[in-house]
Each structure stands twice: as structure tokens, then as C-alpha cells.
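wait is this the right file?? whatever heres the structure
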């Protein structure tokens, strides 16, 4: 399955750091920022999560929720959210099934080593549940502001 701009976002259910099972379709009527990131507690992922945290009120003002997804287990998400005061849900995609649905589970290379992992990506899903914008291979600096601006300019 691949995702496409203008098409329904693939639905899923994942466990969240809150302990609840979260279903994407439960957010119909709200804009959703669905962001995939490689790993809790790493420098880039921490910066991105804290940038979303610091802009959370602005996202709420444009009727948007933030959902972060990584392959980390729920207990690690809980520690990450607690340590950095993250006021949004982090979802555990330990089997990377949702990452595969959204085509962000990729072969990566680091220091000559190849491995499978998350390609940092963000999807904006509108109130009707359709994907309206995607960013792949996200560079963290300035990305949260870019996502917020897109919602303000196009979905408000």
C-alpha cells in the first residue's frame, strides 16, 4: 500500500505513551500532523519533538493534533515524553507496519552500515481524513514551522 496526496490516509491502531490504543480515524474532524521519526532520545528526534512541543498552542489554534510515530516501545515513549514534557501522543510502531503503510520504512546507511529504519517524514491529514501534504527526508531545522504554516495557509 502506498499513500497519495488527496487520498484517504491509511487507518491504523497503535499503542500510545498514554497507555491507550489510538486509532487514526478517531481524529476525523481535526487536522492531524502525523510525523514519523527514527528513535526516541536521539539528538535530531529530540529537537523535532521539542519543536512540536514548543508550538503546540499554535497547532491547537488551527484545530490540529500532533501524533509522533517511531518503532520504539511504549515504555521508551513514556520516558521520552516525560523527560521532555511532550504534550502530544507518541505511538509505538514496534513491528513497523504503519511505517511500511506510509512508505517510510527504508534502507538506510550510516557509517558504512546498512539497516532498515524510519525515514523522517511528516504527513498532514485534513479533517476528512485525506492526506493533503507530505514531507519526506525531513530536515529538522524549521520543519515544524513549515508544517504549521501549511495548515494555517491551506486548512484554516
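ok assuming it is, sequence goes like this
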Amino acid at each position: 500500500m502506498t499513500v497519495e496526496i488527496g487520498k484517504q490516509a491509511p487507518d491504523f491502531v497503535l499503542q500510545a505513551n498514554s497507555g491507550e490504543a489510538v486509532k487514526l480515524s478517531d481524529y476525523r474532524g481535526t487536522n492531524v500532523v502525523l510525523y514519523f521519526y527514527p528513535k526516541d532520545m536521539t539528538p535530531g528526534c529530540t529537537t523535532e519533538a521539542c519543536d512540536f512541543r514548543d508550538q503546540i498552542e499554535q497547532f491547537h489554534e488551527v484545530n490540529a493534533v500532533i501524533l509522533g510515530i517511531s518503532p520504539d516501545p511504549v515504555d521508551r515513549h513514556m520516558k521520552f515524553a516525560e523527560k521532555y514534557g511532550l504534550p502530544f501522543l507518541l505511538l509505538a510502531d514496534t513491528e513497523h507496519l504503519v511505517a511500511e503503510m506510509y512508505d517510510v520504512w527504508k534502507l538506510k546507511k550510516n557509517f558504512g552500515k546498512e539497516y532498515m529504519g524510519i525515514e523522517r517524514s511528516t504527513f498532514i491529514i485534513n479533517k476528512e481524513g485525506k492526506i493533503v501534504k507530505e514531507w519526506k527526508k525531513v530536515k529538522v531545522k524549521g520543519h515544524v514551522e513549515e508544517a504549521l504554516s501549511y495548515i494555517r495557509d491551506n486548512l484554516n
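The first strand starts at residue 13 and ends at 16. so i think its the right one actually
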